[in-house]
Amino acid sequence: MSQERIGLWLIGAWGGVSTTVAVGLAGLQAGVAPETALVTSLPKFSRLKMADWSQFVIGGHEIRETNYAAEAEVLYQNSRVFDRDLLNAVAPRLAEWDKNIRPGTLINVGSTIEKFAGPKTLATRGEKPAAAIKRIRTDIEEFKKANDCAHVIVLYLSSTEPPLESDASSWDWAKLSATLASGDSSPVPASTIYAIAAFELGCSFVNFTPSVGSNLPALAEFALKQKCLHVGRDGKTGETLMKAVLAPMFAARNLKVMSWVGHNIFGNMDGKVLDDPINKANKVRSKDHLLTEILGYKPQTLVSIEYIESMGDWKTAWDHIHFEGFLGTKMSLQFTWQGCDSLLAAPLALDLVRLTEREHRRGKSGVMNHLAAFFKSPMGPHEPEFAKQFIVLEKWADEVAAQQ
Amino acid sequence: MSQERIGLWLIGAWGGVSTTVAVGLAGLQAGVAPETALVTSLPKFSRLKMADWSQFVIGGHEIRETNYAAEAEVLYQNSRVFDRDLLNAVAPRLAEWDKNIRPGTLINVGSTIEKFAGPKTLATRGEKPAAAIKRIRTDIEEFKKANDCAHVIVLYLSSTEPPLESDASSWDWAKLSATLASGDSSPVPASTIYAIAAFELGCSFVNFTPSVGSNLPALAEFALKQKCLHVGRDGKTGETLMKAVLAPMFAARNLKVMSWVGHNIFGNMDGKVLDDPINKANKVRSKDHLLTEILGYKPQTLVSIEYIESMGDWKTAWDHIHFEGFLGTKMSLQFTWQGCDSLLAAPLALDLVRLTEREHRRGKSGVMNHLAAFFKSPMGPHEPEFAKQFIVLEKWADEVAAQQ
Amino acid sequence: MSQERIGLWLIGAWGGVSTTVAVGLAGLQAGVAPETALVTSLPKFSRLKMADWSQFVIGGHEIRETNYAAEAEVLYQNSRVFDRDLLNAVAPRLAEWDKNIRPGTLINVGSTIEKFAGPKTLATRGEKPAAAIKRIRTDIEEFKKANDCAHVIVLYLSSTEPPLESDASSWDWAKLSATLASGDSSPVPASTIYAIAAFELGCSFVNFTPSVGSNLPALAEFALKQKCLHVGRDGKTGETLMKAVLAPMFAARNLKVMSWVGHNIFGNMDGKVLDDPINKANKVRSKDHLLTEILGYKPQTLVSIEYIESMGDWKTAWDHIHFEGFLGTKMSLQFTWQGCDSLLAAPLALDLVRLTEREHRRGKSGVMNHLAAFFKSPMGPHEPEFAKQFIVLEKWADEVAAQQ
Amino acid sequence: MSQERIGLWLIGAWGGVSTTVAVGLAGLQAGVAPETALVTSLPKFSRLKMADWSQFVIGGHEIRETNYAAEAEVLYQNSRVFDRDLLNAVAPRLAEWDKNIRPGTLINVGSTIEKFAGPKTLATRGEKPAAAIKRIRTDIEEFKKANDCAHVIVLYLSSTEPPLESDASSWDWAKLSATLASGDSSPVPASTIYAIAAFELGCSFVNFTPSVGSNLPALAEFALKQKCLHVGRDGKTGETLMKAVLAPMFAARNLKVMSWVGHNIFGNMDGKVLDDPINKANKVRSKDHLLTEILGYKPQTLVSIEYIESMGDWKTAWDHIHFEGFLGTKMSLQFTWQGCDSLLAAPLALDLVRLTEREHRRGKSGVMNHLAAFFKSPMGPHEPEFAKQFIVLEKWADEVAAQQ
């Protein structure tokens, strides 16, 4: 395994998940964080000559103005996660990385997200797509050069954007690039702007959110042209993971799911953004299609996501599954998932970065279909059942191992 | 598919699961019961030219003296399962089958089970193994002949026996058969006596309980010699099914399960028997080994099974899973499973009968490893994860389909 | 205790709660129903010379066209409540009572409720308030006479009306009666129309729903003038009962409730009506004010009520209470309430009828403040804590007992 | 209110609850801890001229050898309670109090508790009751003098002792004191030894555990003779508090509780001691009698308490209440209580100390019946329902206020 440096460029760089990514990565580099919850630390993946944690350096874009220490402190105080000793140990490294964070773009992020923007980002308001892409490119290029990175992976972790009403989903790259070049800001949201900038530079793009990102035919085309890797959407961290695990059980037993009700409450920034019904729509859609795919029919479903301030980063999901058994007998399964959102998401984000880097080292490009196990709404063809998604991932690992 | 008659010989023939098997089968034969919860009614299995429900006829052994109508009424009254209209529709058929039930054996069933025995069974007390086997054989043979059955499947559904302290698990068939022939009743429990009788007759033997049954090297040897099929143990209906489905998720995500606590409450006859700590030991053992197999390490576990009369047949399991996530953060998943025990078990028992009959028609013998998905403690080599067990079953289906 | 006949006039007479009231009352009259869940059957109340169940006869208004047997069958089939034997036993009595049901009024019931109306009720559309009141009066008078009733209690059990935007809440009786007489239908909803008709006849009026009913200054004035008893609103059957019981515990322990989230799912007709956000608003308001009254401050609250068809009459409420303990430690209490809505409401409705009849026999009139324990939003001055409400009821019982 | 110093003498002084009492008291004295969870900080009690937190000084007995900083660190690490800043702020004060802790006695504490004893306490092994009492007295007297205390309250917080088989519960003080003087160690456990020493000195004695303490006729007699206040047993912190709050609801609604199952899991030292079935017996008994007292009949009950190491100080109780409603319909209520044991207990312990000191200042002696709301098994005559216990406490407050 080469010891080249690898850039990890975070979009939404001071958000809860990004902050946890940074704290965790710094902790791993300092040898004070255990590898629990890192899929790539399982023996079947760690044998694949994964990049070492020490190789990564963090930079990114962010619309707010803050710093890692302050954001980590909020998580620590509100949610009693992290350890004071860990925070102290990683503070100098976080302060270094703070210097690599640049103002983000506000193009089509919606008014709820815009409210959080600081003065530096607000100053970019009205920027045309071409200018935004150029600015983003420059930021990443400077970072790559300054840190002597062999490769940079752009990891999209910003708050969920509102769904965009546009025809762009039926356009090819020629049409999209021409439209953007014309100064028309309407067709794509910020997440896609970042993806375009990433592909122009030959970077990989990982979309951990329900936002559109690179999930457009035009972008798929452009990624291949640029020989870039990409993958998404929406990290499968909690309730949806449970659905992808439990629904196959009902299907396999021929138990008829009549209704599946899921209520999610949490109090972090993501929750505040999702409290806006427009942003929430994107998220709920991402959580709801799964059951029909797995069961082969559509039970009555309900997914609510509510911002409850006192919960902090602790997402509690209560699901009530009502199913019909033999001879028409109605039975139920309820579960309560109490997980800390950022702490569930961050290790998966780090895993995706390592898996992407490994694939990049194999010279691959395009959508990484084998990573469906990580996403609520995987791009590309995929199995909906978690167990089968994981088997696909294991097969990929066997293939990589065979080439080593 | 031939339209020969197939005998379904139930051990514990008037128990809760058997009664539900009988009600359900009669309902399916009468076309008044839906096929929900029947795995073999899923398209991927029903295409295998499964036996038609109309081919089956029920007989069996039972230590209590009662009848299907009375037992079904108890379930109806205590647990509000079944439908009065269904019960009325199947009453004549149940009354016919009642006539095929014969007194069981009490050899090594333990004092808790013995208390339920009626006069006819009590009259057999002291019977030597050879006599018991002969009596059981005769009962089944007469039933087979009277009903003109092409094949008889013995389905073991009796209450959980106490674990037996004996060396029989290291004996070969020669030694076991000689010991039993000598009049020594000590080496094996009633479930094994029934299995021997079944194999002597060339019947298949399906053990849906944690009792030993045919799960001994001597019996495996004898089954092969007799070209018989067998499989077991302990139907995977509720909490353990959930474990086999959820534990792989924690493993795949490298989340460290620190403790897994499961409390089960229910109030049926099975619960009364399991309230005896000796009988319970067998059951708890069957529920507990799974996690270590799947996770690769042993978390602290606790499984309690308690008889709560008011619950009737409704088994409620509360599980609390405490796991460590990224950066040492402790999180939890709780679930409450509210299922009607007999209604969960009966369709699986019917599935096993159909799957066994299908395999018998292919001319196979020995342990049916491909049926591990149905059992808490599958006999023979097997995957511990439910999803992988089901893939094995699907592969078997593909193989059978290819031969058709 | 006199053995006079007492009329029980149900508004929404064939709805789920009314049907259960009718089945239960007929069962009690036939001696085939136990008195579980009847507060007035507790020794401390039964000593008060309560009316005997045999004295009651049922009539009522209803906008749908159906009958008790059909409605009871729906509850039986969908929700597995009642017993077939009980239904058979009470069928003749229910058929008699069916004959006493008359078409209701649609004045201001809202479009969601209107959709359920049958032809006879639809024929009254456009009826002016004065005509509606007269028609309702005539129906009740005829029933009273035909059945030789000493007293008639009007029990309002219809689906929740939408909140009405009108100034009527600040009017006196002179203004309200004059406005209605003028042919203006706008100021009050159907529930108030029924209350006016009841008071004109000297009947008692019990409002078991969140609808306005007699909860207006003008009606309070009119009730006193007519020497009528009345009480309401919204029977406290499940989740809100739990709040009235649990919130005082947090207050007494000085534990700070940060948030209280309640999700309710159920699938009966009431649920269908509440699925209309306009009707739901009335209900949620009735469920939400309580916590602030008891705690003395306003925690973040969320109450959702969702129609999930498969649940039938089984209302499942999941509440998550997040509270701060000593030294800022966040803790939680969750509960899951699984109750059958109509079966919880019906006995309380019957209790209210008996308690009202007893108070009527004492010659009282006006709002029955001592019945606050039965309501989510009690009319008149009252304690918000359930335990204190019950002490008030016990004191009333002592007072009545002392007079006997 | 006088500003005299008040001694708080803790038995089990370095245990989890005591450590939290010490951290909390020091935090309150330093003005860095909020008063949430302190009942005596509610306006209705704080008006009673309660002692100020600054007046208290801590000393105590303990069989282990450790210190507050180390014990607080364990709670902080295992259970993520406390705040690093709070711990830093109170460290000097805790170090002072550490100096006031003396070796405890092992008389009849049982072998499970004995295992935790350090060398200094082990050196007292074999000590006769009279010597132990004298040593304890001397320790408290020296503390009282050194700290110039106007009064000392002995607060018993040690691990639950095994039930003692002895006749002492029928003895008077003359017989008990003579027996102990004779050198016979058998009749009473350590908790009673401490109570005797406390009463000899005129101290108040508060027993927050299920151990016997002063709950013997002989001790009641001796307390009155010495004009001492005392109260107990077993702080009502979580699941039992819920029972005392919820059971009255079922009683008031005439809902028939068929079964009440409660499972408790936690992983602190108390849990380790209760994992010994002998010690657990005392605890379970304390948790179980309540329902019968409140309901007036005995439902089937089950209480389990299990040591699950990963839970640390977080006690999770799952209760399943199965009740019969109208027309025989079975319904259920489940709750999950997730509370941090020491953080729930410590404020109540501090409240009891303040309430005892206030009563002492009124010149009272004997059992404080008005404090039943704080205990699972209150000494003296008492209401079993929490709401009524709290009303008794409020009446006491009114009486005290009237005298001020």
What does this structure look like?
The structure is a homotetramer of 404-residue chains. Chain A is built from 16 helices and 11 strands. The first copy, chain A, has 404 residues and is of the alpha/beta class. Chain A folds into 2 domains: 5-235 and 343-403, 3-Layer(aba) Sandwich (Rossmann fold); 239-339, Dihydrodipicolinate Reductase, domain 2 (2-Layer Sandwich). In chain A, the strands form 2 sheets. Chain A has a 7-stranded parallel β-sheet, with helices on both faces. In chain A, strands 8-7-9-10 form a 4-stranded mixed β-sheet. In chain A, strand 5 (204-207), helix 10 and strand 6 form a beta-alpha-beta unit. The termini of chain A are close together. Chains in contact: A-B, A-C, A-D, B-C, B-D, C-D. The interface between A and C is medium-sized, with 22 and 22 residues. Strand 10 of chain C pairs antiparallel with strand 10 (330-340) of chain D.
Compact summary:
With 404 residues, chain A is an alpha/beta fold. Chain A has helices at 16-29, 43-46, 68-79, 84-98, 111-114, 119-122, 129-146, 173-181, 190-201, 217-225, 239-252, 269-274, 277-288, 290-295, 341-361, 386-403, and strands at 5-11, 56-62, 101-103, 149-156, 204-207, 229-231, 256-266, 300-307, 314-324, 330-340, 366-367.
